[in-house]
# Entry
Amino acid sequence: MDEIEKLFGEIEGLHHEIASIKSIISGQKAFQHPQGLKKSLVELSTLAWKLKVMEGFTERLNKLAQAIKIHLEESARWRSQLQKLYQLIEVSIQITSIDSLLKKALDLLKDLTQADRILLVILDPAAKAPRLELNWVRNPAKMPSVSWKAIYTAIGKKALSGEPILIPDTLKAPDFGKLCSKGVKSLLLVPIMVKEHLMGLVYLDNLSQEGAFSREEQEFVGAMAFVLGTKLEINRLSNELKQSLYELAKAQVIKEQEELEKDYIRALFSRFVSPAVAERLASDPSVLRLGGQRQEISILFADIRGFTALSQGLPPEKLVETLNEYLSLAAEAILEEEGTIDKFMGDAVMAFFNAPYPQEDHVFRAVKAALRIVKKVEELHKRESLKLYFGVGINMGEAVVGNIGTSMQMNYTAIGDCVNIAKRLQEMAGPGQILISARVYEEIKDRAVARALPPLTIMGRTTRELVYELIDLLDTAE
# Structure
């Protein structure tokens, strides 16, 4: 500013001296005597020199004015870029759609650069491949036919460095010869980076002039790429969070459903099997699917003797109370040996062992359950005047065990000839008597006391069968 003020002061002085000479030449001012001529000539010479200096000052002024003009234009352009970038940031904050943000970025690039073509390419992490999001051409009629994939192939490896690439003249850049052959004069490539990871590319080129893109534009596009990358990362993290929350909620729902199923199975089967078996069924409900499998089991039938005659002399309420009391004793004895209660049939109960889970000593468990029934009844008789007894039959053999019925209603039961024989033994047993088959006896003869009965004819069998009456366990059996 000091130099400019000094310059204007000198120019003003020159104007005064020029005006004085003009007045002498026009006669408006008297010419001085000869003694002053020399002085005037010196002054005139000085004035001429100052005029020459003034021309230099004028040239300097013109250059200064031009520089100020360029600076103001650049400042205005930079302010405009900052305003546009701020708009992009605002959009990125307000919207969640990455597509809308990319379209906004494309509009800004069209307005603020001399690009003839703009590509916005996003790298898909899942597919590990580039995906074209936006492709804009200023004048399609003049644009050479070249696919975006061809452009990406030519520039993709260069972008892996993570650094922006500004090529003012493709003729002087051998690495971009393919693009030069397609008419590209200059180009600007800015990677979209997030934490050193390449997320995408912003590509601009010009087909008519070299140096179409400046360093300032490179910085602007770089700032824009930073905004896009940040939004892409936010969206990625948001989607991951949503997916994690969805998976967590889904897992929680499944877990709750499984717990409800387990609770239902526990509640349902706790009435028919021991708590331990009910818990195992709840943990592995697959064993409860419709259908069955052949396996060896021990079967126990217990029937209350004389109950039919008793029912004719008791009120219905007392009859039901008595029935439940005796059947409860039988059920308790069976469950204490981890047997499975198949069903209650009027005044009788059917149970089996070694299913749904294997029990190596299933025959011995069935025998102990039968003896428990007898003992529990004896204990009950000490408290009740009404005395009833169970007749019990036990057999072992192969049967089909599983869920029989339909998907809407099924029974977990056992079917087979060995089941029928156990039922026949129970029918032949007297009050308080336990009858076992020869196969059962062979399994437990070293651990129990049993008495052989004369061969009996069992309904449905053509030959007489060996039958034993179970008396008790040996002292060492437990």
